[in-house]
Amino acid sequence: MSIGGSFHETETVQRRSDRAHPGRVRTREECGRTLSGIQCGSISGGSSVSLATRTATIDLDPGETVECSFENQLQTGDITAQKFNDLNGNGVQDAGEENLSGWMMTLFASSGCAGGEIASGVTDGSGNVVFSGLIPDTYSIEEAVQPGWLNTTSLCQDVTLSPGGSESLSFGNQQEIKVSVDVKPKSCPNPLGTKSKGVLPVAVMGSLDLDVTQIDPASIRLFRNGVVDPIMFAPLSWSLEDTGVPYEPFTGKVDAYDCLEYYPNKYGMFDGYLDLSIKFKEKEVIAALGEINNGDVVILQISGELKEEYGGNKIIGEDVIWIVKK
After folding, report:
1. For the whole prediction, is pTM greater than 0.70?
2. What are the phi and psi torsion angles at 8 (to 5°)?
3. Where are the alpha helices (DSSP H) in the chain?
4. What is the b/e burial string over 206-235, where b = at least 16 CB atoms within 10 angstroms of the residue's CB?
5. What is the CB neighbour count within 10 angstroms for residue 299?
6. Each residue of 52-71: pLDDT tens digit?
7. What does the alpha-carbon distance between residue 83 and residue 137 come to, in Å, rounded to a whole number?
8. Rounded-to-integer distance, Cα 211 and Cα 315, Å
9. For the chain, how far is it from start to end, CA to CA, in angstroms?
């Protein structure tokens, strides 16, 4: 994506002889740009110009004034924004981590993604957006995170471009895994009394697509969805057992009956897949909910991570509880 065209500047230098006798003077143009031409008016046969040395050598007659123009072409450069799938979430593109196409990148005219927006583009099949034709300056690029993904590098990155330079910025993202969460497995709806003091059972449901043994139980946190800076707390204990079956959608639940009531088969099994069964203190959960009223439907969310050897991806899921004041 080319931002600008050719940039030219002209510097004019005058040289005048006040001497009684002819003489020779040399003027030199100092500039970090590409010198494309030197023009001096009314110079005699002994005068010369050199683009290589960026100089004009002029034979001056007594009292003569000669004007020289140095034409410069500004050296533009380019900045590449590159997007990759950060499978292990370490912020570095490792072997086997492919580039991602279809991600929006925006170029800004100063650092901190706070200046004027210059241009934007979508990463191509190689995971790149190239902003070219840029004059030397400080810029910044910001990525737009897509739903279901987490950034593992800074969303906004600064870069300083030198004359004729080429710079590259890498942006990493890790896909968030949505999981089925069941509060009070086998029950629907899921009542929670405001004076309860026991334990609240919650399960992350295993399936053909999710092996819960890959989840790091110590990373699990429970909190109320939709609350700014929610209180997040860890489980009392956890175990692996077949406690039920997944319910969809995994997220976006709104009703107290967005759940399933089910029973085990004659062998005491549900779907044959291990679930991560977790226990929380009901008293802590109730205290963390904040202001609640009888009959409220509250969304409880579970977050966590896969174990490092399985990529360390973030997991997220939710279920509904029904507040009962008694």
Report:
1. no
2. -120, 140
3. 282-288
4. beeebebebbebeebebbbbeeeebeebeb
5. 18
6. 787 878 777 777 777 778 77
7. 23
8. 12
9. 64
Least confident of 29-33, 194-198, 264-268, 300-304: 29-33
DSSP assignment of 186-217 equals: T-SS-EEETT--SEEEEEEPP-SS--GGGB-G
Q: 67: Cβ–Cβ under 8 A, 6 or more apart, which residues?
A: 12, 13, 14, 40, 41
Among 182, 187, 176, 204, which Cα is nearest to 273's?
Answer: 204
Q: Which two tokens stand for residue 6?
A: 């050719």
In our burial notation (b when 16+ CB lie closer than 10 A, e otherwise), range 73-93 reads ebebbbbbbbbbbbbbbeeeb
Nearest to 125 by CA among 98, 152, 153: 98
Query: What domains are defined for the chain?
Result: 7-74 (no CATH), 77-175 (2.60.40.10), 177-324 (2.60.40.10)
